[in-house]
TrEMBL record:
Annotated Gene Ontology cellular component terms: chloride channel complex
Recorded GO MF terms: chloride channel activity
Protein name: Chloride channel protein
Main subcellular location: membrane
Location of the protein in the cell: Membrane
Any matching Pfam family: Voltage_CLC
Keyword Calcium among UniProt keywords: no
Amino acid sequence: MFLLIMHAVKMGIIGGLGAVVYVALIGIIYNFIFLGRAGLVLQEFAYSPASRWGIGIILVPILGGLAVVWLIKHYGANERGVREPDILHFVHPEEGKNRYAIELAKSLASTITIGTGGSAGWEIPITQLGATLSYLLGGIKNLPAQQRLVLTAAGSAAGVAAIFNAPLTGVVFALEILLFAFTLSHVVLIGISAVTGILVWKLFHGDKTLFHFKILPPDNMLLYAKQLLLYIPLGILVGLAAVLLMSGISWFKTLFEKNIKNLYLRHTIGLGLVGIMLYLLMKFFGHYYIVAMGYAAIQDIIDSMLRNIGLILLIFFCKLLALYLTLGSGATGGLFSPSLFLGATLGGAFGLVLQYCFPSMQINIIYFVVGGMGGMLASVTGALITSIVFILEISKNYYVALPIIITTIVGTWIRIYFYPKGIYTFKLYQHGLMFERHKL
């Protein structure tokens, strides 16, 4: 057991460093190519200033898309689009052999996608990178298959925990999504790795939180209890939005593949339209809003700084379309943080409508924002427990627990009813690859 603990610490160091390097690469690319300045730090929680390229910003996502095509074509085995299902391929004991170059190329491709303005998330690529580096550099190749599986998942957990400063989220993500079945010793090993990953991250980035929540306890608990019913329609909305997101990406992917055979032309059109949206948003509304993860917009909605329902819904649909165009055209990235963005905008708009229509109900919008974030994340990923734990851990407030639970359960049920194939498994269904639940 001592040897496994040492391996877990090593996985945490590797996963944490992988996350640091990954984010630094995005910072370099984004600052230099998108903004036209030198810089290592990615200010993901602040709105980007207007790019010095002006209208030429439209070309930046195109250049990124062309680079991604070349990289994936030559080193990534032509594996494009949403990254999530690849995690299951890699951590399974019988899958993912001899894929190191492919996985590293795909991780680099996702940094280019995000750094040049494409709409995608970085969390799952970081997870994939943590698993790849842990397996490649961790010295675990000669261990039994079950131990390799757990320690590879531990490296992924370290990356997730690091970028969110949320160790429980990293642990639960690994257990719920990567392992399927586990024992107490596996929980301990993954927990050690997650905490180690956070410590490594803090050496470089300090102790900053993902979002800043100012959640006050309900003034009237009876009114709070009655308002819990309002999270049922919110859950229905996020569930339908998840169906719209997942089916839309699949539809756009088919549309691009059938009508535009040339990969370079496909990315030029898809990412060019994303560039046009970015330019128009900056020109008419003062911010890029939907670029990369969109964390600054989420924080504004949390702080009630963004209260224009029309604008919130506009950036919701712009983000949705940007995801269709980015991932549908074949650029690579995840859907974790985009789900948070879509959930925050939908929950914020829903809360504002309630506040305007029923002023006597004392609607606290932030409850609906976090409910929307958790509900959308659970609906898209199918990771119900991870989503609940994640929102509770980053909000550090348990008054939102019931709203989150209701929204996630209803949203996930709606999504499964209309679109049963989860984002982590729909590619596996397409290829006839579904893994057994191993007893580890």
